Amino acid sequence: MLHKINTYFWYFYEYIKHGDLHSVVASARYLIYKKSHSNDRIVTSSLGKFFCRKNTNDFQFANFRYEWGVKRFILSRIHEYSVFVDAGSCIGAYAILSAKKNLRTIAFEPVESNYQVLVKNLNLNNLANEVKAFKLGLGDQHKLVHFNFNQVNTGASHVGTAGQQHGCEVELCTFDSLLPELNLDPKQNILFKLDVEGMEIEALQGATNFLRQYPNITLVVEEKITGQARIKNFLDGLGTFEYGVIDRYNMFARKAAMKN
Q1: Overall fold of domain 67-258
Q2: CB-neighbour burial class of residue 21 (10 A; exposed 0-12, middle 13-18, buried 19+)
């Protein structure tokens, strides 16, 4: 309970700091009625400007304090990196954060409506030329899959069953297949954020060559669905990684040495 009170205090502090009283009301409305604001709008936060769709929690993702444990981890080490990969970018909050810190930024968002908002937000922050955004999800092979689209919590969309009311077809590819196009320098320190709603293992399998061949990688992985044990077991088969807990939903894995 105290954790939630502290979280909402800082959410509200950020909204009020930027004069965004609409988001204060929207937050309270969502807590009480599970409904969001009824009109599209543009909000300003400590991260930048964001287009927020009506009847969604986009305004929450735009809040600087959202997923504060992950942001604090990234910001405390961001000077160590020169490349940021944002897999599961949604509206682009992390991509915008990293690009404003002058990291080369690559974003992946497979859901069409989320991707369109991501592009709008990059334009709102004058970062369209600074972030390479792919309308793709990361997986273990190139294929089309059906996603269940959460119309309120737009960041929680995930692989589902065809024929469900709120669904869409999305394209997945492997990260390894894009390596020639991305032209990443193995000497660079790369921060790779992976938030793919239970598809973490598949996404990592599709990045096997990258994980083996590039020596300077730190992964930030949301593990609440897949679990730390499965992620560690997979990574331990590729190399030596140092692990740590970021918060109750996220872990990090830093590559330490290669296995023969």
Answers
A1: Rossmann fold (3.40.50)
A2: exposed
